[in-house]
Design brief:
Three copies of one chain form a homotrimer.
Chain A lengths: L6 H9 L4 H25 L1 E2 L2 H5 L2 H7 L7 E2 L4 E8 L4 E2 L4 E10 L4 E2 L4 E2 L2 E2 L1 H5 L7 E2 L2 E3 L4 E2 L4 E2 L4 E2 L4 E2 L4 E2 L7 E4 L4 E8 L5 E5 L4
Parallel strand pairs in A: 2-4, 3-5, 4-6, 5-7, 5-10, 6-11, 7-12, 10-13, 11-14, 12-15, 14-16
Antiparallel strand pairs in A: 8-9, 16-17, 17-18
Helix pairs in contact in A: 1-2
Chain lengths: 207, 207, 207
């Protein structure tokens, strides 16, 4: 990823019969990418995708009308009417589907690979396209942690300070301070947050 | 993401010692991206990834030889010999692996994050590279809904009108009209579709 | 995706009020993308994302200081201090989080969608940002297969020749030659690799 290192792509272009313009554009792109790789590695100790080199996470959030301090990766797909509060972190490979309206609070971690829906295409597919998409509004409160690769079904209401484990399917509503996990998820305990922000977990004995 | 807003990247380029050409190219890219963000937000109420700004989902499907009306996101990785019918929706963050041949029917929803394999590298990895990849053809029928983040193992045959829940691992064959869910998946019921396309679910009592 | 086929984007630019420069840049990008799609389809029988058209998987691995023969897709997010050995395959939609240090051995398959952490934002989110991220070093040995969409929690130690099934959550240490699966994962058997590299599985009876 140095300025002239990426000779494999250039060789492929030559081998594939590419012309002068193809090579020139590829060289310009590679030069800039290589430069950005080095700049961002040095500044943030992080190597991001091609898209994230160009799309700033805070500026994408701002463009979407999300709150102050919220960031969202380039790969996150945002559809329809989606509102997000302040200081929420939204990871890569996420889907925020606001086809039927979606609202997410402040200070949440929406981990990488999380998909939150407010529509469903189940009936559409099974009926061979004869039935319509179904829709229902979905909401997530403040200070929630939604674990990696978790899927939230359309219509679900998740309260404040909820903890949802990785790989879960949330198809039920969760009250404030709930711990849930599994696919489909089960409620397995409670979160307590004291005045100073100290967090404690109370896990149900039989879970 | 406005025409001149993305000053953070430009500042990083300056701070990192980038030259005139780096800045110019970055400005041209940002200008076009900002414009496309606004155009697509207005037209489709959707904010897609950098790649999806340029790669049209229908045109990618057409390039791949998939059927009429089928769409596929830019991030979907398509390897080897993959056939897909008409009007099938293929989400982002998907893997369609046709190393050992893969066929998907018409009118399916291949939800975001789904990975469908026709090869496996398990033995290759565990043996320290001494054993080969294994391969077997995988097929999915028409009018199937494959839920978010579900993985379909190589060699699996899924019939028509099947419903597979989110986060599942499908490692067994599924007959037409089967409902399955879980990792590894269990068969939990049947789908019925009447002549008008109306869909009903029959869930097994002890599932 | 041919040289002039992608007329939909160009039409959108015209409809959206784009100027001559927007159209010109879009045409140049589309021309190069269309060319690369055809070249890579012909050479590798594979259609990759926009970013992967430009970012060579081996060169990204080299830039990151990973070992000889290791490859990593463009979409993989690599944060902090991450070391990877030789001949390891790292799929798309993966997260390698080295905030608290991460080490992965040689000859592993880190399947698509795998997320490996050495930090956690659970307490940060639940406390409304009052508590800090937590961190702990995570390690994975040689010759491991980590299945699709699996999440490895911070602080976990996975030995050599381990097999972790798809959709798993690994929140416990795994000794050499362990087979584990599930979310959270359970140990379900042992791998045996003989001198010639032949691999056998011994699955526990009651698992």
């Amino acid at each position: 990823m140095g300025r002239n290192e990426n000779s494999k792509l250039l060789q492929e272009i030559k081998d594939g019969g590419g012309g002068f313009l193809d090579l020139l554009i590829a060289k310009i792109v590679l030069r800039l990418i290589g430069f950005l790789f080095r700049v961002k590695k040095k500044k943030y100790n992080r190597v991001v995708s091609f898209g994230d080199l160009f799309i700033d996470r805070g500026e994408k959030a701002k463009f979407l009308g999300f709150g102050e301090g919220t960031t969202i990766y380039d790969s996150s797909l945002v559809v329809g009417d989606v509102k997000v509060g302040n200081n929420t972190w939204i990871g890569p490979f996420t889907v925020l589907d606001g086809s039927g309206r979606l609202e997410i609070g402040s200070n949440c971690s929406i981990a990488s690979g999380v998909q939150i829906y407010s529509h469903e295409s189940v009936f559409w597919a099974l009926s061979g396209g004869k039935m319509e998409y179904t829709m229902a509004e979905t909401t997530i409160g403040d200070c929630c942690y939604i674990g990696p690769n978790t899927v939230v079904k359309m219509g679900v209401k998740i309260g404040n300070h909820c903890l949802v484990g990785a790989n879960s399917l949330v198809n039920i509503d969760l009250e404030d301070y709930t711990i849930a996990s599994g696919s489909p998820c089960k409620i397995i305990g409670k979160v307590r947050v004291d005045g100073t922000g100290e967090v404690e977990f109370f896990i149900d004995k039989d879970s």
